Amino acid sequence: MPDQDTLPTPAEVTGGRPLPEAVGRHRATIDAVLARRDRRLLVVAGPCSVHDPEAALDYARRLADAAERYADDLVVVLRAYLEKPRTVAGWTGLLPDPTLDGKGDIATGIRRGRSFLLDAAATGLPLAYEFVDPVLAHYVADLVSWGAVGARTVASQPHRHLASWLPMPIGMKNCVSGRLDTAVQAIQAAGLPHTFPGVAADGRLTTLHSAGNPAAHLVLRGGVAPNYDAASVAAALSALRAAGLPPRVVVDAAHGNSGKDHNRQPAVIADLAAQIAGGANAVAGVMIESYLSDGNQPLAGEPRPELSVTDPCLGWRRTVPLLEQLALATRRRG
């Protein structure tokens, strides 16, 4: 058995299968949508966290078919999250714990996770990813077209530095409490150049120099109270303007905006669709936690592959009408 405490270098992992040529194009398209040069709506949809790559690929293929149907109005991105942030403890995702049992075989997780991302990219979909551990970012970032810094890490200086270096648009989520100022400051910080330690392709620690990420933006994910309504969106846009930042937001229909109840996501989407149809041009994107089956399951025994083991998700049959609803709203916005 190889020493599983020794991780492969990024070069060893990324030097196998060729990188999909579409990644750069996807990044440019998403940037254009966020900047409102492209009238379409960004929709990031997929499971809370991938625990079964084969089932997640089944979902990705279905989403790719839907994305093609609604391509005139939506830019659909697969939520391909392989790390799961935790407030205290719990399963931390496929990359750090691929066997779902706490053994922490990270080397296997890196290879298995990257293989999934390559297979998912082969569907033609852009990939979304939340960067939880800055070290692990070097193994997957070249495949990601939209990234996120989560509510629990948005105040972290290493994550802000990482976002300033990453070559794709990065969404900064508001804090778990719902406060916006930390996320607004994170956007400002990510837009600046930084010098910080990182991991080179050969695995050595190195000094990274970032130019700043002009495509960092705000994600409204709710908090103690939801913040997807028109008044909350307007308040967020005012905060961005006051900070000298572009007034644009992506709104997460799950998490604090749904009270972590997947059954409430359709009502959140309906409200956002009404705002968009009414001309809310600054709402550049929407996020949906969606998977093959409704709900979630405890992580015990042999988990069902089609059902989330983390946050509850909307099933596929309930997701498709939401995509149609958002496409119609975007068409009406013009």
UniProtKB/TrEMBL annotation:
Pfam family of the protein (one): DAHP_synth_1
Leading EC class: transferase
Protein name as it appears in the record: Phospho-2-dehydro-3-deoxyheptonate aldolase
Superkingdom to which the source organism belongs: Bacteria
Keyword Amino-acid biosynthesis: yes
Gene Ontology BP term (one): amino acid biosynthetic process
Role: Stereospecific condensation of phosphoenolpyruvate (PEP) and D-erythrose-4-phosphate (E4P) giving rise to 3-deoxy-D-arabino-heptulosonate-7-phosphate (DAHP).
Region (Disordered), start-end ranges: 1-21
Enzyme Commission numbers on file: 2.5.1.54
One cellular-component annotation, GO: cytoplasm
Keywords, alphabetical: Amino-acid biosynthesis, Aromatic amino acid biosynthesis, Transferase
UniProt family annotation: Belongs to the class-I DAHP synthase family.
Pathway: Metabolic intermediate biosynthesis; chorismate biosynthesis; chorismate from D-erythrose 4-phosphate and phosphoenolpyruvate: step 1/7
Domain DAHP synthetase I/KDSA: 33-320
InterPro entries: Aldolase_TIM, DAHP1/KDSA, DAHP_synth_1
GO MF assignments: 3-deoxy-7-phosphoheptulonate synthase activity
